[in-house]
Every structure is written in C-alpha cells, then in structure tokens.
Amino acid sequence: MDIFIGNLPGTATLVELTDFLHGVDLRTHFQCHEGYDEHARNYHFVVARTATPEEGLALIERLNGRLFEGQRVEAREYLPRGPGQIWDAAERRVNRQFGQVGA
What we know:
The chain is an alpha+beta fold. The protein has helices at 14-20, 53-63; strands at 2-9, 31-36, 42-49, 67-68, 71-72, 74-77, 94-95, 100-101.
C-alpha cells in the first residue's frame, strides 16, 4: 500500500524526516517530493510503500495529525492522479521552470 505523508516543512532534512518516521521501512519505493505552492512556500511530501494494507493503515493511524517541526502531518492512502483526471479546486502547485501555476 502506498502512503502519502504530507504537510512536511520544506526546511526538513532527510535525516530529520527519517528520525520522525522512525520504524518505517522506507525500502526502495520511498519517494520524497519537493515543490512550491502559490505563495512561494517550499513544501515536502513523502510516498512510502508498506508491505501490506494492514501495515499501511497502521502507519496512517500512527502519523496522521502528529506534529513535525510545528506542522500537523497529513497521512493517507496515496492515490496518484492520472493525466486525464480533472482537479476541481484551485491549483496550488507552481511550475518554477515555466513560471506558471499548475502543470
């Protein structure tokens, strides 16, 4: 099961993040993403893969709502957006390469 772990401070280092996720087997499927929102704030989120759905649900229960460097962490099942899926809310991601919101 893939787990989205978000609302991580953009200033967090990989060492701090690993300490926070103590006991989570990050395996080779671990992915860390960095970006900027519409207010030019740096953010991070992590996608971690668990071996079983039960482990994934336990990880969500353990992490969701916990504070990490003063920010409340969001943990939930990761569901990737496909290219044909429409997002019905304001886009918050910023494409720095092209200087535009979204993409």
